[in-house]
């Protein structure tokens, strides 16, 4: 065998291995959640009950599905104006120079900070602020977690956007300028339509990150297993619930947590799929 | 060609998996020397275990590792036979004992208290009756200046502040001890919430781990929560004195926790101390246990491994280790409990033969 062939086989086999691992994870989650599915059926998705007391155990995923979607979508909404401005700033307005490169490193740094550090900062700085503003009594809750998540996902949402924006062909922009377009009009009518699918891809990436985030959320959301009544209420997310309760779980609770993991996996898959669909539409 | 490539990839994948599988299985050597002893479980006594296992490793040259993964995790690890011993704050009830693959023994190691810790301006000293505990932790009493709290605490300046209950968001032996007590003193609690390592809380904020609850209490004015006493003392958070069965208000201390263990102890050491009869006993006290298999020859363990495990646990209940308990705010085992613990260890066998 020559090196050409060996290299090719290596590529193919590592690709196949990835697929096998992904399938393996799904299979493990699926098998692990069978007992819970047998007990609760599809009602698991809609039940708001999470009662681990022996003798009347009953588990449902709805408060955590809602909590996960609420925190991550709210985070995406909060992060959008910041991430979009940064993308434009770095991709179009100031591509080179000391300030943009400084800004770029700061944004990259945000991506590298461990989430527990975000959690700590949120706990000691953001939570008292939220309480001070009177948004809720103790400063914990869905809103506080969303703000932390929004800061965490800015780099994911902005870097890709900056990259695509800087790749918009100069000839297009120049053509618009020569027709008398202002800079804002160029952004609106040339850059955004051209780079839209790439910018959007960044937001999907960011949303995926927000959905799966565990530690920072656990420290701020209040970990209340009751159905949240609003964005300033306490709540819990699927990832945070699993991290909290897995250590002591056994029996029905154990398999219910695995089923929550499976649902989280599926939701992440659906978000990615919808993202791809929209991207296709945008770039078409 | 395509087919061949796929086949090749599949073969590599299978070979990889197989080799991983083989690596996991240690070669059998029933006479090999013990190098490390591994335990896992409860976090409630972890400060104590960390301290004594470290000095054991230093003195005897045998590495003892302890993973604070929670009581449930400790039980599961023992069930999966991947540890030499587990640790739990809640003894295994008869049903759980029957679920284990072989007979499991309980060895008590020390006594601890779960305290009601709070954060109020001016750090007043508070007294709690069982009725107040029920009212506050079930969300029936919502304000600190509620007349019911004032009636038990005359002369204490209580602020017009909302009560924020803080509980453990992760399953925990501490929660079990606390809810075991609450179920004994409150019928309403027993019916609506019950006793367990994780509960369905009507009100409050969940925080992860004893340090998480302690941190949340100290960061939140008007908060009250339950934690292992060590964590409250270490952070200087005020704790309430609680009225025991005899009617006395008792602060958690080494003496009052020891006093709670005065009663009779069954031979298998499985006994709950909460709501103790002792007049000077703190009512939310508990033993914490190490759990191990009676028959030590499992999963290809060597005889030396078994002997060393027993030696270690014997040392844990010896005066040398027991005197360390008070340094981290636990109480030493009463003599009667030590005798029972030694009797339990005497039952341990290897291949059916007594180890000692």
TrEMBL record, chain A:
It is a multi-pass membrane protein. Residues 65-275 form the ABC transmembrane type-1 domain. One of its GO terms (cellular component) is plasma membrane. The keyword Transport applies. The chain crosses the membrane at residues 9-34, 64-90, 102-121, 141-165, 186-206, 254-274. Coiled coil: none annotated. One of its GO terms (biological process) is phosphate ion transport. PROSITE patterns: ABC_TM1. SUPFAM superfamilies: MetI-like. Keywords: Cell membrane, Membrane, Phosphate transport, Transmembrane, Transmembrane helix, Transport. Part of the binding-protein-dependent transport system for phosphate; probably responsible for the translocation of the substrate across the membrane. Belongs to the binding-protein-dependent transport system permease family. CysTW subfamily. This is Phosphate transport system permease protein. It comes from Marinifilum breve.
Automatic annotation (TrEMBL), chain B:
GO terms for biological process: phosphate ion transmembrane transport. Pfam families: PBP_like_2 (PF12849). Residues 1-23 form the signal peptide. Keywords: Phosphate transport, Signal, Transport. It comes from the Bacteria. One of its GO terms (molecular function) is phosphate ion binding. InterPro entries: ABC_phos-bd_PstS, PBP_domain, Phosphate-bind_PstS. Residues 28-320 form the PBP domain. GO terms for cellular component: ATP-binding cassette (ABC) transporter complex. Belongs to the PstS family. NCBIfam families: 3a0107s03. Part of the ABC transporter complex PstSACB involved in phosphate import. The complex is composed of two ATP-binding proteins (PstB), two transmembrane proteins (PstC and PstA) and a solute-binding protein (PstS). This is Phosphate-binding protein. It comes from Marinifilum breve.
């Amino acid at each position: 065998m020559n090196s050409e062939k060996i290299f090719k086989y290596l590529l193919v086999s590592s690709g196949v291995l990835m697929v096998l691992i992904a399938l393996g994870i799904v299979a493990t989650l699926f098998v692990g959640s069978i007992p819970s599915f047998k007990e609760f059926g599809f009602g698991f998705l809609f039940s708001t009950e999470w009662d681990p007391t022996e003798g009347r155990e009953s588990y449902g995923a709805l408060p955590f599905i809602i909590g996960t979607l609420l925190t991550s979508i709210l985070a995406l909404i909060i992060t959008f104006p910041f991430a979009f401005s940064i993308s434009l700033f770095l991709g179009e307005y100031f591509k080179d120079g000391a300030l943009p490169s400084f800004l770029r490193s700061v944004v990259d740094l945000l991506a590298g900070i461990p989430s527990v550090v975000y959690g700590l900062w949120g706990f000691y700085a953001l939570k008292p602020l939220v309480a001070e503003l009177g948004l809720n009594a103790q400063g914990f809750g869905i809103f506080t977690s969303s703000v932390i998540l929004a800061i965490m996902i800015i780099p994911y949402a902005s870097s890709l956007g900056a990259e695509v924006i800087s790749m918009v062909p100069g000839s297009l922009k120049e053509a618009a300028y020569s027709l008398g377009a202002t800079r804002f009009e160029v952004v609106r009518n040339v850059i955004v339509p051209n780079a839209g699918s790439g910018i959007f891809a960044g937001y999907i990436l960011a949303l995926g990150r927000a959905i799966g985030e565990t530690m920072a959320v656990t420290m701020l959301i209040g970990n209340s297993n009751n159905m949240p009544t609003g964005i300033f209420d306490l709540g819990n997310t699927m990832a945070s619930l699993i991290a909290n309760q897995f250590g002591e779980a056994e029996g029905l609770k154990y398999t219910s947590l695995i089923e929550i993991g499976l649902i989280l996996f599926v939701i992440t898959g659906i978000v990615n799929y919808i993202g791809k669909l929209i991207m296709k539409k945008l770039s078409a | 060609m395509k087919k061949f490539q796929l086949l090749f990839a599949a073969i590599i994948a299978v070979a990889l998996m197989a080799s991983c599988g083989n690596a996991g299985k240690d070669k059998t050597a029933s006479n090999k020397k013990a190098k490390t002893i591994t335990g896992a479980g409860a976090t409630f006594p972890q400060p104590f275990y960390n301290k004594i296992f470290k000095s054991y490793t230093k003195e005897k040259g045998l590495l003892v590792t302890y993973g604070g993964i929670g009581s449930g995790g400790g039980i599961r690890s023992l069930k999966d036979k991947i540890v030499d011993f587990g640790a739990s704050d809640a003894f295994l009830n008869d049903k759980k004992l029957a679920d284990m693959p072989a007979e499991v023994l309980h060895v008590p190691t020390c006594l601890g208290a779960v305290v009601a810790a709070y954060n109020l301006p001016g750090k007043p000293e508070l007294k709690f009756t069982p009725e107040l505990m029920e009212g506050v932790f079930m969300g029936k009493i919502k304000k600190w200046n509620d007349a019911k709290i004032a009636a038990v605490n005359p002369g204490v300046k209580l602020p017009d502040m909302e009560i924020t209950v803080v509980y453990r968001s992760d399953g925990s032996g501490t929660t079990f001890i606390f809810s075991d007590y609450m179920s004994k003193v409150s019928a309403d609690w027993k019916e609506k919430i019950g006793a367990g390592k994780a509960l369905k809380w009507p009100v409050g904020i969940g925080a992860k781990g004893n340090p998480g609850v302690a941190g949340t209490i100290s960061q939140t004015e008007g908060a009250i929560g339950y934690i292992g006493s060590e964590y409250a003392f270490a952070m200087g958070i005020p704790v309430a004195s609680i009225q025991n069965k005899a009617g006395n208000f008792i602060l958690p201390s080494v003496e009052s926790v020891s006093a709670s263990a005065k009663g009779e102890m069954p031979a298998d050491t499985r006994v709950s101390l909460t709501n103790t009869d002792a007049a000077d006993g703190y009512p939310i006290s508990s033993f914490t246990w190490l759990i191990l298999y009676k028959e030590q020859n499992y999963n290809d363990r060597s005889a030396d491994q078994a002997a060393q495990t027993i030696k270690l646990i014997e040392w844990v209940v010896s005066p040398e280790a027991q005197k360390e308990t008070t340094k981290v705010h636990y109480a030493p085992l009463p003599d009667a409990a030590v005798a029972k613990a030694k009797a339990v260890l005497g039952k341990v066998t290897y291949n059916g033969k007594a180890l000692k």
